[in-house]
Amino acid sequence: QVQLVESGGGLVQAGGSLRLSCAASGRTFSNTAMGWFRQTPGKEREFVAAINRSGNSTYYADSVKGRFTISRDNAKNTVHLQMNSLKPEDTARYYCAATGLNVGLPYNYNYPYWGQGTPVTVSS
């Protein structure tokens, strides 16, 4: 089992930045690949970014590539999502997810463990 707790969400103006964090406990963190997803009401949960177990391989949705950066600190059991140049369309609830796979994949069904999410609102 893995427990995930997200933090760092909030209200920001377009063009601004936020840094989301996800604290993990339970399973050995270095044995999990991690992902960030987001969801708005009435829409499917969509992939944002993923990182492999060691942190040397990352993968991004086209919509955030060049603006968002995923990173992890295995010593602190945390994963971060640095979000820059935020746009109103980035407004969503952001979820951290974990999988026992070696690499982070962009599909919901690859992740058995999920946090409760943290809200991000970008005003225009």
Strand content: over 45%
Largest sheet: 7 strands, mixed
Order of helices and strands: EEEEEEEEEEE
Number of strands: 11
Report the principal-axis shape: globular
Radius of gyration over all CA atoms, rounded: 13 Å
Measured distance between first and last alpha carbons: 40 Å
Number of helices: 0
Q: What fraction, in percent, of the residue positions are helical? A: under 10%
Brief summary of the model shown:
The protein is an all-beta fold and 124 residues long. Helix content is 0%, strand content 51%.
Describe this structure in words.
This protein has 124 residues and is an all-beta fold. It has no helices and eleven strands. The chain has strands at residues 2-7, 10-13, 18-26, 33-39, 46-51, 58-60, 68-73, 78-83, 92-99, 113-114, 118-123. The strands form two sheets. Strands 2, 4, 5, 6, 9, 10 and 11 form a seven-stranded mixed β-sheet that branches. Strands 1-3-8-7 form a four-stranded antiparallel β-sheet, with no helix packed on it. A hairpin with a 6-residue loop joins strand 5 and strand 6 (58-60). The chain is globular and about 40 Å long. The model has no long low-confidence stretch (mean pLDDT 95).
Which keywords apply here?
four-stranded antiparallel β-sheet, 11 strands, mainly beta, 124 residues, single chain, seven-stranded mixed β-sheet
Summarize the helices and strands and which ones pair or pack.
Layout: E1 2-7, E2 10-13, E3 18-26, E4 33-39, E5 46-51, E6 58-60, E7 68-73, E8 78-83, E9 92-99, E10 113-114, E11 118-123
Parallel strand pairs: 2-11
Antiparallel strand pairs: 1-3, 3-8, 4-5, 4-9, 5-6, 7-8, 9-10, 9-11
